[in-house]
Design goal:
This protein has 783 residues and is of the alpha+beta class. A hairpin with a 2-residue loop joins strand 2 (80-93) and strand 3. It starts with a helix and ends in a 5-residue tail after the last helix.
Length: 783
């Protein structure tokens, strides 16, 4: 039986009976396994190097100095400890200034993992157990290149200057947020006070690294969990590199979405191909039934054939997916700095399950119908007792839904994809039915060829509707990938004004405000506004203390844990629009104006009373207005703004944003040289850094989306071939009745133009509608 199944598979493949079906299976498995192999490698790498990315076995992080008692308790419990301090600042060299990520460490860092350092740029590096000596600094390759630094040169950091003693090539606990993507500078903690950069309001991350036995770490973790205050958190193996996991989780969601689209389209193609396979094997099965073949024997024959097909398709798809994951790893190298180990075999078996699930859901019902054919079908085409077509597609839908949920790993994403395609298919089906009905109205006034084409569509009306829906879904996937994506990117690039601010200056102290403003004005920058910035932590809403545990959404939890940048003003800032309540203006009563997105995330409403803790003091006021912001204006924006009388007595710094013409690029260098504590952020460089990351993410996602395009093409071909045999018989009958080639050509052309026009209209409308929804609700762009 197995040999006969193999011979049958070979015959069907050579005759082209299952070519599209096999391609659809390969595409589905390849899209699934490419994502599976890549995420498996990342998970293995993070697990393998979890301790190294913490520079210890456990780490305590905070936005303020950690109490010394935490380190003392760790020492008493026999744990090794070490501290690091990270922040961003401007560094100066002979060729200019550069925004850098600074990390200050002491001897013994890191407790786990190893630093790597090269004696000079473009020379071999090596592991080292040392850290920079006091008065020295290690720069990474990009910083050395940006400032033309060599070993022995001096680099300015705040109020001090340090000697470049080496090139830093690897640090284990480097993050992947933006301020870790900028060039890096490693210094000794003893040099921090001389820099003068540890000022009130500065964004600084303090970290206590710990190392010891597993039991010691677990005991200390249990002890410290109840001692942590707001803004303090535990980083362990379970949440090591949360920023990396967050970025990769988001990338994985997009990749899975692309894989889901490919699998759904492949399922549609398989369903259409399976129907044609069944129709073309009807006569052969009827003959075998006449020769004594039982239903059980036929079932075994076809199950064996498709089992072999599934194994071959899964193997080819897995090999293709393995090659694609190497491309994904290369494209996402900007995120994944850790060397990736070889992937496991689990994704291969996942791909095999995908192939078998698609075969069970979309092939097995047709095989059961085929095996139940009556011997009388040799004389007349009849199915005897067999599953109805509606039940066949219902079983396929159930299997596909379960498969989507398993692939996505979460019900919500799977439900969105399945519901989206189901809604699109239902809507397309209804519209196709209506459009095809309308197309028959002018048939009486058309030529013979056109009438024959319309008659052909009408004779197999239900199948024509299915064809239109399948064609529309395939075209929709391709149009979304190409046309809509290009429109959204173009609108995004045009949404930022040409004269938008491209420099931000932060950490301006109150006694520097006038001098900085005067220097900018003298440098040719006009209309500079200095916005006060007060850093405060939200501690209570309506008198009730709040914590991250009160919220389930990740963004809400992060907002509650962090310090807000508050401000005060009497005039409504540019790009702000009051959506609820009344702007306070000159009203001196304590009150807050809150950004509407923040209010939605935290569940805030007009009239709620917010309490902020600011440098040990409390400021409390009621929400009197909600604002919508234009974040793409590239101007200074704040979540919370009050009248001056509410916040002006608290410690503050100032921030400003301005547009710097290309011929004034030396002005930031001069500004930092005079005021070393200032941080000048070149937003063109920021956008360039982020664009590099997003471009690589986009290219990685597009690699997987190629499978969706291929699956879409297979759907188109399967939809056309699904009625090929019926069309051949109709043409033969018409030729017998005397129809000429011209009439037949016009009839076929009419049928194809009608189906293509309806499908194309539905796909274009669907792509436009989805593109509008993405622009309006996801990207906030005009479309």
């Amino acid at each position: 039986m197995n040999l006969l199944s193999a011979r049958l598979l070979k015959r069907d493949f050579l005759s082209g009976e299952i070519t599209l079906l096999a391609i659809a299976l390969v595409v589905a498995v390849a899209s699934m396994t490419s994502v599976g192999f890549f995420t498996d490698r990342v998970a293995s790498a993070l697990q393998r190097e979890a301790n190294q990315v913490l520079a210890g076995d456990l780490a305590l992080s905070a936005d303020a100095p950690l109490p010394p008692a935490l380190a003392r308790e760790a020492g008493q419990r026999g744990l090794q400890t070490n501290e690091s301090i990270s922040f961003t600042s401007m560094a100066t060299g002979a060729s200019g200034t550069q925004l850098v990520g600074v990390k200050a460490v002491a001897a013994g860092y890191p407790l786990r993992g190893t630093l790597r350092m090269a004696p000079a740029l473009n020379t071999p590096d090596a592991p080292t157990q040392n850290v920079p000596l006091p008065g020295q600094a290690w720069v990474d390759e990009r910083l050395a290149s940006a400032l033309s630094l060599r070993t022995g040169d001096e680099i300015g950091l705040g109020d001090t200057r340090l000697k470049v003693a080496g090139v830093l090539t690897y640090e284990p606990d480097r993050g992947v947020n933006f301020f870790a993507i900028v060039p890096r500078l490693l210094i000794n903690r003893a040099d921090l006070p001389a820099t003068g950069l540890l000022q009130e309001g500065a964004r600084i991350n303090y970290r206590l690294h710990l190392a010891g036995s597993m039991s010691q770490i677990e005991d200390y973790k249990n002890w410290v969990s109840g001692k942590l205050l707001r803004g303090q958190r535990i980083d362990d193996v379970a949440n090591a590199r949360p920023e990396l996991r967050s970025a990769l989780d988001r990338a994985e969601r997009f990749l899975k979405l692309a894989a889901l689209l490919a699998v759904v389209l492949a399922a549609v193609a398989i369903g259409l191909s399976a129907r044609r396979f069944m129709e073309r094997h009807l006569n052969g099965c009827a003959v075998m039934r006449c020769l004594g073949a039982s239903r059980r024997r036929l079932l075994g024959l076809f199950v064996g054939e498709f089992l072999l097909l599934g194994l071959i398709a899964a193997s080819l798809g897995a090999l293709l997916g393995f090659g694609v994951q190497a491309v994904l790893a290369m494209l996402l190298s900007v995120l994944v700095k850790t060397p990736l180990p070889a992937p496991g075999v689990a994704p291969f078996f996942q791909g095999l399950w995908v192939a078998m699930a698609l075969l069970v859901g979309f092939i097995l019902p047709h095989v059961l119908r085929l095996c139940s054919v009556s011997p009388l079908a040799v004389i007349r085409r009849e199915w005897s007792k067999s599953p109805a077509p509606a039940l066949v597609w219902a079983l396929g839908a159930v299997v596909l839904s379960l498969l989507m949920t398993w692939i996505a790993g979460e019900v919500r994403l799977a439900a969105l994809v399945v519901a989206g395609f189901a809604a699109a298919a239902a809507l397309f089906g209804g519209l196709a039915w209506a459009l095809l009905r309308v197309a028959f109205l002018p048939a009486a006034w058309c030529s013979l060829g056109v009438r024959l084409g319309l008659s052909s569509v009408r004779s197999k009306f239900a199948l024509s509707v299915v064809q239109c829906v399948a064609l529309a879904l395939g075209l929709l996937a391709m149009m979304l990938l190409f046309a809509t994506r290009a429109d959204l990117l173009e609108n995004w690039s045009n949404s930022v004004p040409q004269d938008a601010p491209n420099r931000f200056v932060i950490n301006i102290q109150p006694d520097q405000r006038e001098a900085v403003g005067a220097m900018l004005k003298a440098g040719g920058v006009s209309g500079v506004m200095m916005n006060p910035m007060v850093r405060g932590r939200l501690v209570a809403i309506n008198g009730r203390a709040v914590s991250a545990q009160d919220y389930t959404e990740d963004r809400a939890q992060r907002l509650i844990e962090r310090e807000f940048n508050l401000s005060f003003d009497t005039a409504l800032p540019f790009g702000n629009k009051i959506t609820a309540g009344r702007w306070h203006g000159d009203d001196a009563a304590p009150q807050f104006s809150v950004e509407s997105g923040l209010a939605k995330t935290l569940g805030l409403q007009l009239g709620d009373v917010l309490r902020f803790e600011i440098a040990g003091r409390v400021s409390e006021a009621r929400i009197t207005s909600l604002r919508a912001l234009r974040w793409d204006s590239m101007r200074v924006n704040f979540f919370v703004i009050s009248p001056p009388q509410t916040l002006a007595h608290h410690p503050m710094s100032f921030i400003t944003a301005f547009h710097l013409p290309p011929d004034k690029t030396r002005l930031p260098d001069e500004l930092v040289a005079r005021f070393p504590n200032l941080t000048v952020i070149d937003t063109t460089a920021v956008l360039s850094q982020f664009k590099e990351v997003m471009d690589q993410l986009s290219r990685a996602i597009e690699v997987v989306f190629v499978f969706s395009v291929v699956a879409g093409v297979v759907v188109l071909l399967a939809a056309l071939l699904s009625t090929h045999d019926e069309r051949r018989r109709e043409v033969a009958v018409l030729r017998t009745l005397g129809a000429g080639q011209g009439v037949l050509r016009r009839a076929l052309l009419t049928e194809f133009i009608l189906l293509g026009a309806v499908a194309g209209t539905l796909a274009a409308a669907g792509a436009g509608g989805i593109g509008w929804a993405l622009a309006e609700y996801a990207f906030k762009l005009p479309y």
